[in-house]
Amino acid sequence: MSEPVGELDPGFSSPGASARPWSDVEAKLTEAQIFWLSTVRVDGRPHVTPLPAVWTAGSLHFCTGPGEQKAKNLEANPLVALTTGTDQQNAGLDVVVEGRAVRVTDPARLAELARLWKERLDWDYTVSGDMFMPDDEHHAYVFGVAPAKVLAFGKGEPFTQTRFRFP
């Protein structure tokens, strides 16, 4: 993935501010442990839930059990938003990733993701076929979201709102 160029929205940024660099956003995506996943139920109602996710190879990855609400929602509509950041008003960086959740089923890719979950989040997953196994009785689908758009909100002077678009 080539590095996207950020476009500052001057209407939501401090005077004289510059677009946030992609390196700051990618660092936040890599370091964050919890994201808020937003999906839409079949009847149109929103569903939002916190979950751990792993950023690697230009995509944000998360997992869910096949019977969970988010898995049911993704079956009907794979478009999602994942957000992370801080609860502070005047400090930090909030990031919103919009894209399409695509199931990861390749065993080699799943093994690499399981290694990253352990390394970054200390979660133990084994790979069984085309899914994660957190224990002997449960299994989880893994999804990757390659960004279609990323919004980065720099909080604290200078305040910034930067949009990154992806091909």
UniProtKB/TrEMBL annotation:
Residues 25-121 form the Pyridoxamine 5'-phosphate oxidase N-terminal domain. Residues 1-20 are annotated as: Disordered. Gene3D superfamilies: Electron Transport, Fmn-binding Protein, Chain A. Keywords: Oxidoreductase. It comes from the Bacteria. InterPro entries: F420H2_bilvrd_red/Heme_oxyg (IPR052019), Pyridox_Oxase_N (IPR011576), Split_barrel_FMN-bd (IPR012349). The keyword Amino-acid biosynthesis does not apply. Pfam families: PNPOx_N. This is Pyridoxamine 5'-phosphate oxidase family protein.
